[in-house]
């Protein structure tokens, strides 16, 4: 033996260019949401419960579907969706204007993809690969490809006359409404401060 190890053949380099346009948009949305610090912290801290990561994936798919159902969706509409999902699913009130920044970025990415300009998506993808490592990047890429295939299957089923309401099964279960706790006031007129329960 000469001491040199033989390297395993590497799979071909994956790039957004190899995806269909709808999958390119899915990837762009996914990367934009994964780069949103507030959402990343919510997922890492499981503020949305044990399915926090699944809720983020669901949000990515929901935004892509929003563009399909309502092509005129703008950054303002998208910001409202992001704020509502963060509040409803992760119990987080986002007041740092970052939701608006993420919405603007997604709208900008969509506009570029619609024109066939993948420079920004490629840059986000390269940054993601460097930061997260190859294994994580391949997993993310595969998930986007799989979602794209599932979407094509869903479209075929709809054309066959299937009921469209079936798609609602993909949405994460919503929590029951929270019980409102009335503040306790002692005889001196002071309001008792009650800490929030840890999940």
What would you say this structure looks like, in words?
The protein has 199 residues and is mainly α. It has a domain at 19-133. Helices cover 57% and strands 0% of the residues. The chain is built from seven helices and no strands. It starts with 20 loop residues before the first helix and ends in a 40-residue tail after the last helix. Mean pLDDT is 76; it is low at 1-12, 161-180 and 195-199.
Summed up, what is this model?
Helices cover 57% and strands 0% of the residues. It has seven helices and no strands.
**Secondary-structure element pattern, one letter each:** HHHHHHH
Helix content: 55-70%
Mean pLDDT score: 76
Main sheet specs = none
Beta-strand residue percentage = under 5%
Outline the low-pLDDT stretches.
1-12, 161-180, 195-199
Helix-strand category: mainly alpha
> How many strands appear in the DSSP assignment?
0
What distance lies between the first and last C-alpha atoms, to the nearest angstrom? 57 Å
Report the principal-axis shape. elongated
Count, helices:
7
Rounded Rg = 21 Å
List the defining traits of the structure above:
disordered N terminus, mainly alpha, 199 residues, 0% strand
Question: How do the helices and strands line up, and which of them pair or pack?
Answer:
Blueprint: H1 21-34, H2 37-44, H3 52-69, H4 75-90, H5 98-114, H6 119-132, H7 134-159
Helix pairs in contact: 1-3, 1-5, 1-6, 1-7, 3-4, 4-5, 6-7
Region (Disordered): 1-21, 139-199
Keywords: rRNA processing
Biased composition (Acidic residues): 147-170
């Amino acid at each position: 033996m000469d001491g040199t190890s033989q390297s395993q053949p590497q799979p071909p380099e994956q790039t957004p260019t190899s995806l269909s346009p709808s999958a390119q948009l899915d990837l762009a949305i996914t990367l934009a949401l994964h780069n949103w610090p507030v959402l990343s912290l919510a997922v890492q801290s499981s503020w949305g419960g044990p399915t926090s990561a699944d809720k983020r994936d669901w949000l990515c798919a929901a935004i892509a579907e929003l563009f399909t159902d309502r092509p005129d969706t703008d950054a303002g509409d998208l910001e409202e969706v992001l704020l509502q999902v963060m509040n409803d699913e992760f119990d987080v009130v986002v007041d740092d204007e970052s939701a608006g920044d993420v919405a603007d970025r997604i709208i900008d990415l969509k506009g570029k993809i619609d024109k066939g300009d993948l420079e920004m998506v490629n840059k986000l993808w390269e940054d993601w690969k460097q930061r997260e490592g190859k294994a994580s990047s391949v997993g993310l890429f595969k998930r986007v490809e799989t979602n794209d295939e599932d979407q094509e299957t869903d479209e075929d089923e709809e054309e066959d006359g299937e009921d469209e309401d079936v798609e609602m099964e993909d949405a994460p279960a919503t929590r029951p409404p929270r019980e409102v706790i009335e503040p306790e006031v002692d005889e001196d007129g002071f309001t008792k401060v009650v800490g929030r329960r840890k999940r």
